[in-house]
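Translate sequence into structure tokens.
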Amino acid sequence: MTLPDPGKSYAQKRDALEHYFDRTAADAWRALTSDEKVSKIRATVRAGRDDMRAAILATLGDDLSGAQLLDAGCGTGALAVAAAERGAAVTAIDVSPTMIEIARERTAMAVPAGATAGPGEIAFSAGDMSAAPDGPFTHVVAMDSLIHYELPDIIEALSAWAPRVTGSIVFTIAPGTPMLMAMHAVGGLFPRGDRAPAIAPVPPARLLKAIAATPALKDFTPGRTLRVSRGFYKSQLMELVKR
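Result follows.
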């Protein structure tokens, strides 16, 4: 499978990601996000994702009662479930219908398709994370769903969510160097012969400068930041808080 090169449009990357996660790597991600035994490389990725999920939840707080949360790029639903367990009404969207099917299989918190989630419930749907329901949402969370996109596309996604948010946007970026992209191209994370989608490292300082210069984000101020590095997993949490 050949994925788009950096610089391609958001829509092209989104479509390639849908194909990858929906078909090529569905079984790999089902295993990675479960309790199944995996390779040492995948185990470091699993541990890194667990650490990042915990960091995001700590940023949101232990009690999410009354909160409306959008999980943008929810994958197999682990963060959505954890947020619902803390009392949030969760809208969870992912580009891959297969990931959504897996997420639904793993929790009794899912409401019927098309229904609205209440406190402690999750409304799963497949689609474009930047075209999710209007909200309003107390929080928007995007864990490792923006790491494949260049800076302009990240700004575009943040700007699309901004009018729907009353509290914060908590998201992650790939903060590294070209070496980080090379690590992901090795192919050890997924079955031999399959390539993981290319990531697009973005310097945090450059991103913050772009955010400050974006009119749609003028009501947000930078909050918590934290980097998680576990073997092949390298990701940085960033928070934008509504003034």
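Note: The chain has one domain: 10-242.
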